[in-house]
Amino acid sequence: MSNPVIETEEQRALREAVAALGKRYGREYFARVVAEGAHTDELWAEAAKLGYLGVNLPEEYGGGGGGIVELSLVLEELGAAGCPLLMLVVSPAICGTVIARFGTEEQKRAWLPGLADGSRKMAFGITEPDAGSNSHRITTTARKDGGDWVLNGRKVFISGVDIADATLIVGRTEDARTGRLKPCLFIVPRETPGFGRSPIAMELAAPEKQFELTLDEVRLPAEALVGDEDAGLLQLFAGLNPERIMTAAFALGMGRYALDRALDYARTRQVWKEPIGAHQALAHPLAQAHIELELARLMMQKAAHLYDSGDDMGAGEAANMAKYAAAEAAVHAVDQAVHTLGGNGLTQEYGLASLVTAARVARIAPVSREMILNFISHQSLGLPKSY
Within 66-205, where are the H helices? Predict the structure, then answer.
């Protein structure tokens, strides 16, 4: 499902290589890891060895020198094979990008090589109980105390904190000149005193666990701050736009996996004279699902190209559209796949039922489809805000 008009020869080769890796592991491996309460360590390690995890990070720090275009391709193909790596969204895409763009030289040397070779992971903490992802309502505060920073607050639905060496926490510092609060980002090592975590019980079948975080007088050195404390939303959205693009890739991979399973079944399952795929009542919805996935990928590729070219404003609009389109396409593809298989679509043998819950994640996180529609309505269409 590569696009020769948009993808270079090198990118197509990368897609094929990642697809081959994903095929060697597949859904059976993923399901076993989930059932055992383990992590996809073997796949992560092999993907790292092949250079896929850090394909978007700068070459001088051990990365592949590519961009979000290449990293989204990696995640999509692993998802299409049934074994997505959620931490690709968080560790190299969000945290790696933010540090590469705004970190100090010391931060880049300390973190980027490890993020690139997979030996280190970093989680991302923005969502709060009362604010969701509304960065204007974040209540986690950071105050200066001598040469240190002291953080207090709570975060929820933070992925992979237990396997991450640190979490990139979004807090707010008070601007003495205006009295307004601005978002700032801090690297908080996992075992920092006052930094607590508790797992959130989820119905989602995934190796990566979700956590609630508490920050109780967490004391950090000055060098824990990433970027400029006065940069505000600029450096935050340097991570959020790749997050939306990668969420689109995650959803696309999932939708493709579900569609492929449905097509295999529709070609061979015979109830009357012909295989069920010959009946338009099943064939047309599957064709529609394929069209929706292809259209969503085009918007994702546009968003990734805009981001990699440095067009943050253009990428912001396209990234939101891509995330919206891919989430809707994935939900529709999974639903139709389950429906195509009938009762078999709800069995463990065929492995589609768990995707019903998983597909809805892309509609909700990292930002809901309704908030994306709000963004498009007032940013792209010039309509007045309702909030």
Answer: 68-80, 87-88, 97-102, 105-117
Q: What are the structure tokens assigned to 86, written together?
A: 């959620």
Residues facing residue 152 across a β-bridge: 141
Q: Where are the alpha helices (DSSP H) in the chain?
A: 9-36, 41-49, 68-80, 87-88, 97-102, 105-117, 233-268, 280-308, 312-341, 353-364, 369-375
Residue the block writes with tokens 């009762």: 343
| pTM (predicted TM-score) | 0.94
CA 110 to CA 249: how far, in whole Å? 28
Q: Give the C-alpha separation, 57 to 65, whole Å.
A: 5
Residue 142 · residue 186 · CB < 8 Å = yes
Q: From its phi and psi, is residue 148 left (phi > 0), alpha (psi between -120 and 50) or beta?
A: beta
Distance CA 133, CA 233 (A): 13
Q: Which residues on neighbouring strands pair with residue 132, listed in sequence order?
A: 128
Q: How confident is the model at residue 220 (pLDDT cuts 50, 70, 90)?
A: very high
Instruction: Say which amino acid occupies 28.
Output: E
Length of the chain: 387
pLDDT (0 to 100) of residue 177 = 46
CA of residue 328 relative to chain centroid, distance: 16
Contacts of 68 (CB under 8 A, 6+ apart): 56, 93, 97, 242, 245, 246, 304, 307, 308
Calpha distance 228→184 (Å, rounded) = 8
Q: Please give the pLDDT value at position 232.
A: 62
Give the whole-angstrom CA distance, residue 178 versus residue 143: 16
Q: What is the Cα–Cα distance from 182 to 249, expressed in whole angstroms?
A: 30
CB 12 within 8 A of CB 38: no
